[in-house]
Amino acid sequence: MKRLTMIDAVAAPLDESNIDTDQLAPGRFLSKPVTPDVLLHDRRFDSRGGRRQDFVLNHPAYAGARILVARRNMGIGSSREAAANAVAIAGFACVIAASFGDIFYNNCLQNGILPIVLDEAAIDDLITFLQANPGRHLVIDLPAQTVAGEGLLIRHFTISPRRKRCLVEGLDDFALTAQFGDALAAFEAGYYKTRPWLALRA
Amino acid sequence: MQPKSLLEKIWQSHAVTQFDDGETLLYVDRVLMHEGFWWSIIDMLREKGLTIRRPSSLIACADHLVPTASRVNGYASITDDRRRELIRRLENEGREIGAIVLGMMDEHQGILHVVAPEQGITQPGMVIVGSDSHTSTHGALGALAFGIGTTEAVHAISTQTLWQNPPRSMRITVDGRLNPHASAKDLILTIVVRLGVGGGAGRFVEYAGPAIDALSIDERMTVCNMSIEMGARAGLIAPDDKTIDYLAGRPRAPQGADWDRAAADWRTLYSDQGAIFDHELTIAGDAIVPMATWGTTLEQAIPISQTIPDPARESDGIRRRANEQALRYMDLKPGQRLSEVAIDRIFIGSCTNGRLQDLRAAAAVLRGRKVCVPSFVSPGSRDVKRAAEAEGLDRIFIDAGFEWHDSGCSMCAGANGDQLGPNQRCVATSNRNFPGRQGPGSRTHIVSPETAAASAVAGRLVSRGQLEASA
Known about the structure:
Number of domains of chain A: 1
Number of domains of chain B: 2
Helix content of chain A: 25-40%
Oligomer: heterodimer
CATH class of chain A: Alpha Beta
Order of helices and strands of chain A: EHHEHEHEHEEEHHH
Number of strands of chain B: 19
Helix content of chain B: 25-40%
CATH architecture of the largest domain in chain B: 2-Layer Sandwich
Structural class of chain A: alpha/beta
CATH architecture of chain A: Alpha-Beta Barrel
Distance between the termini of chain B: 60 Å
CATH topology of the largest domain in chain B: Aconitase, domain 3
CATH superfamily of the largest domain in chain B: Aconitase, domain 3
CATH superfamily of chain A: Aconitase, domain 4
Structural class of chain B: alpha/beta
CATH class of the largest domain in chain B: Alpha Beta
Number of helices of chain A: 8
Strand content of chain B: 15-25%
Strand order of the largest sheet of chain B: 5-4-3-6-7
Number of strands of chain A: 7
Strand order of the largest sheet of chain A: 4-3-2-1-5-6-7
Shape of chain B: globular
Radius of gyration of chain A: 19 Å
Largest interface: A-B, 56 and 73 residues
């Protein structure tokens, strides 16, 4: 996984709550690898494939945005990793929201996207600022755990130390788990001794 | 000894290693996969050059993409080449790998979350993960079960573990008893409305109390299934005599001396008196009434007898805007009654409400009546289908005008092509009413099987009580 420390990039305000995974990556796109037009497909494109000019992500000022700011319950719904993958493939490295769907949050981390939870007042400030100043940058400092922008209050966010370490060092879960191979073998031996019925029959 | 919750007991017995801050490498007993994501998991496994640690702990079910209208022509019934290819990949690669495979033409085929309990694969005290968010269903048997994405699924099958944040717990106690007009679906919709779709975020929710104890295993699965719809990681119910009776004699349940040891262990799986939960909520079971969603999230639901709320009276600005947006999408107005709105389609089935008891409940409403909108049932599994046919439920559905389909996820997510057209309105017993979920522009109302059946007869969204009062 790529190392992730600082992101200084255009931020797009998606001024909505309850953006579910069916919207992020509609079901009919799930049988193939994700392409850049999957993300929020039915919001970005009309039924003939034309771009909906009124949808925020189609605004030229947000072309090249790497940070997405949404409101409440971002990514609720299914376990489809295509939802997080579509966000990554569309170029985003960070999603900021007031709250996240749990599986989507984890899937973001697995796709090298930093999910940041800020309180609703902070989200409100960010969205108001980005709508008033389309194309402005936000600066995410992962080691310092801050979100900043010109003329904005610096906001602090929390993240699990393990997740942070993985992102900063570009270490994925697989590499981390590999460090515990002996512990796993020992655990497994004891586990099936006390629970023989779980050792699988052919 | 420190009292422990059911969650803590299962968690601690599966902790391979734990950091000081509670981050845990959690051991995984079973991994559930369906053909919709099998290909991406196996492709990623190969790309990473990894192998499967315990192949027989994988359960591979064909459910999302299989045709449900008819399967009489076998694989030729699948009209889409890519879907056929993905189903065949799950079946062929699953067998090569040594997974437990329930393929499209298997006599026990069905929806993953219906089939795994039916086969005795799901057992109390297990940690079960699945490449599907409704893996939370399996908590109904006292397993710690939750959905994961593709990368985590690859991690689970290659290492038999997953990294987990320290768990946050919640207990929802349901007092009293559900009245005869209320179902388990109405109960969980009431809980989702009460907590909001983010209200259980990341939590492991244990359901307890006399109303939960009184639920059948099928009903408990409906409740745990929709735990994910309030953002919870999992739903969990302590195993009891009903759970143990349910599992006895199932094909993949422990047998003989193993059964005795297992059952003795399962009886230790409950939250001790004095166990501490991060959050507690009590719900009055006897206050539950038939519910329906009017919007595009599960918290946008009301008792069917009430009118659609006016967003202008919502004090939370974000919720107000979401409600306005949902009303526009659903083409509904504040103050309207759901019973005024014409519906186009009825769907009974899914991992939420596709079990035998659900079909019995719907059939009880339909007996001697006729539907006036296109309606179909997709039983949750072929075992459910056969059991229903043995009781004559298929005749009741067919005589009422329902189509009697084969089993699969079908129109819940429409991944097999069973989709609604734009602006079509469906009353469904499934679990999600998201925009476009049942096809681009589709409008979904989530209800219980009884309400879906009553609505099929009325042609409008009504509860069984309303149907019978108007007859």
